[in-house]
Amino acid sequence: MPWNEPGGDKDPWSGNKKKSTDNNPADKVTELFSNMSKGGGGGGKLLYFLPLIALAIWAFSGVYQLESGKQGVVLQFGKFKEITTPGLHWIARPIQTVEIVDMQRNRSANDQTTMLTMDENIVDLEVEVQYLVDDAKAYLFNVMLPDFERDQSQGVLYQVMRSAIREVVGASDMDFIIKEGRTEIEEKTKELMQSILSEYKTGLQIVKVNLTYAEAPKEVKDAFDDANRAREDFNRSKNRAETYSNKVIPDARGKGARLVEEAKAYRDQVIAKSEGDASRFSNLVAEYQKAPEVTRQRLYLDTMEKVMSGSKKIMMDTTSGNNMFYLPLNTDGGASEQGSVPPPVSPSVLERLKREKDAAEANRQAASRTTLREGR
């Protein structure tokens, strides 16, 4: 028996392994093509289906599916043909190919660098940029290596990021960068990067710029912290002085305004009193010209009444021989709590005042008759 003609379920290599061969798919395929090459009845019919099988395999090889958030850029002979959206699609391979771009994936780029500020200080920075692809065709064809993620230093995005942050930091002071200016620096850097990328038509959209670290270099950080503490002490003292000034100045202004108003009120009071005294004096002059003695006596009595009304002493006439005296009930000699009661006057004083009044009246009548006689 020849070595290549098995018989009796045996061959030179396999021995008796017919049972395991029947269960091997690879052996079945080999046996099928062997029968086809021999021109057997079943194999000859299968030759007619080979082109259909090959056509089916080629057709299925061009089917692809895009998930949500992705776009397919179809190339035909290496030239852009169309953009496909999420769903099931087909291309004619190998003359057509497809580049799938994830439009919703949040990509990022980082940079650590040392830069010079506007006030000639050095600052260490760490910047993170988050971005998306918003134009798949521009992303693939307009710029070479728009965001080369394997080596970001070779990508256009990295170069634009470093250029933008250097320009923004170079126009800012050290204190502004480290303290209150981080948000503004992030916004300015984002706007500048987006304008450059849009001008280059890279198909990239900047989502956010984060300034994750901004400090003085480690070699000078201690000295820089000392300067910051001194500046904070100065600002604290300045704020305390401004607070005291804001408290004292309004009080002083209020007190000054109050003094001015009091002075004005006193001025008006004095002027009114002076005008009243002048008017009263003018009236007294007119009365005095009519009856000088009576007017003089009345002024004397009014004055004495004002002077003696607050005195605690009691004046008595001992020459009149009147032994009856009227003393005030209140021991202080002043007004009682129920009202102001003047002290009683002795009869001799009243008599003397009456005589003086009658004499003044007679003098006034005589002066009137003399005036009438001279007029005739």
Automatic annotation (TrEMBL):
User: What positions does the domain Band occupy?
Assistant: 61-228
Q: Which residues form a coiled coil?
A: none
Q: Which domain of life is it from?
A: Bacteria
Q: Which residues form the signal peptide?
A: none
Q: Name one Pfam family in it.
A: HflK_N
Which residue stretches does the UniProt record annotate as biased composition, category Basic and acidic residues?
351-361
Name the UniProt key words of this record, in alphabetical order: Membrane, Transmembrane, Transmembrane helix
Instruction: Give its localization.
Output: Membrane
Describe the task this protein carries out. HflC and HflK could encode or regulate a protease.
| Record protein name field | Protein HflK
Native species: uncultured Thiotrichaceae bacterium
Q: What is the lineage of its organism?
A: Bacteria, Pseudomonadati, Pseudomonadota, Gammaproteobacteria, Thiotrichales
